[in-house]
Design goal:
With 186 residues, the protein is α+β, with helices and mostly antiparallel strands. The protein has four helices and seven strands. Strands 2-1-3-4 form a four-stranded antiparallel sheet.
């Protein structure tokens, strides 16, 4: 076998290995609106503007009908060691899912989410700002503010509450839980 053939074969195997690793990386899946049920409240997921997902390290996808249901699940039910990434729907671009670390949050009584806490995610800070100024009013929030707000307003974890498992809330975007995060991001 020639040297070229050996090199070509090694390169091919390296490319196949990289493709296989990339193809197996846990990632969000499109939410089956009108068919899927929320992991937390068990309601059908119907409104494309508020869906959310948690993706585990094994690739299992947990779907939610709202930011608040997802946060309540993280606070109360999720094993943070198994969380790979957390995703929310970009309200201005549904049904696109964005990593929670890249989201900008708004809480508004004039923009009622499916479970009623008025939490909405945007993929663009200036669009969120225009939504506040021109349409809905409300409070600008960072991820930590959202977690605290849900915890304070749903002290028992919201509908269908269960005993709490962990207080640690990951903010991941395709990285393993506990990875560094840009703290200035809202």
């Amino acid at each position: 076998m020639s040297t070229f053939t050996r090199r070509a074969r090694r390169s091919l195997w390296a490319a196949v290995t990289l493709f296989a690793v990339g193809a197996c990386s846990p990632k969000p899946q499109p939410i089956a609106y009108g068919e899927a049920a929320c992991e937390k409240c068990l309601m059908g997921i119907a409104d494309q503007r508020w869906g959310a997902e948690i993706v585990t390290l094994t690739g299992k996808v947990h779907t939610f009908d709202s930011v608040e249901c997802m946060v309540a699940y993280l606070v109360q039910d999720a094993d943070r060691e198994t969380v790979h990434s957390v995703w929310v729907t970009d309200f201005a671009n549904p049904p696109a899912l964005i990593p929670v670390s890249e989201a900008f949050f708004l809480r508004s009584d004039n923009l009622r989410s499916p479970m009623g806490l008025g939490l909405t995610a945007f993929g663009n800070e200036s669009i969120r700002q225009r939504a506040v100024e021109d349409s809905f009013g409300g409070d600008l929030m960072a991820w930590d503010d959202v977690v605290e707000y849900v915890d304070q307003n749903w002290p028992e974890g919201g509908p269908h509450s269960r005993p709490r498992v962990s207080r640690a809330i990951p903010e991941t975007s395709g990285k393993a839980a506990g990875a560094d995060h840009e703290s200035a991001r809202h």
